[in-house]
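#onboarding

Welcome to the new folks! Below is a worked example of what a typical request in this channel looks like: someone posts a single protein sequence, and someone else replies with the predicted structure as tokens. Don't worry about understanding the tokens yet, we'll cover that in week two.

Example request:
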Amino acid sequence: MSTFFENKMFYDEASSFYDEMIEFDKNLEKRKETFANIFEPNKLVADLGCGTGLDSVALALNGNKVFAFDPSLKMIEVAKQNSFKFSVDINFLQNTINNISQEYHSKFNYVVSLGNTLANVEGSVIYSTIQKIYDLLVNNGKALIHILNYHLILERQERILSIKEKNNFWYIRFYDFVNGQINFNVLKFEKENPTKNKLITTQIFGYKLDLLTKVFESVGFKEIEFWSDLNRNKFDIKNSKDLFIYAKKS
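Example response:
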């Protein structure tokens, strides 16, 4: 039976196995190399929705000073362990994007929010959340925001996001589409004993390209680029799995 959680509590529940599920160590070096091709080194960077710190650690290993924000205290606790493991100094703060203090406005050269974090933002605050991302940047600072391509997901009603096996466990991430609502599920079970399992669920919000374009433009972002991956390949709404938005504060 699934347990439905408010978003922050969902990630509290997932924190104990999240690194294993996303293969943290395997992907860290890849993310570090990719970031080196996107961001200038030795800059001030905000990581919004930092989770267990994959992007924060990669950015810090590249010489950046990183402030990492997440509403889940348990995810931050794991992220702190990862920063210690990789010997990097990161400032972790528990907060939603929308509630980050004004003391951080006009502070960062880059704002990064990957891992589909934007889909966890409720519709009532999506505009103010993008405004906050804009406000955090210095003039000419840049934001890199990732969300899955929900135009494609909703059109095809694709339920399965990923199926992975790691250390004797299976991890299945999938959606339920219920009366216009998207529920995100994570199922974890033992390979040798599938009846021993954990299923957690939360609601997410499937923002599409047209809405996000309007919001980014309305708060003042310029030179907005849309990528399908971190190699800057052009986004194709009919085929791309991911949407990366790279935009400049003028």
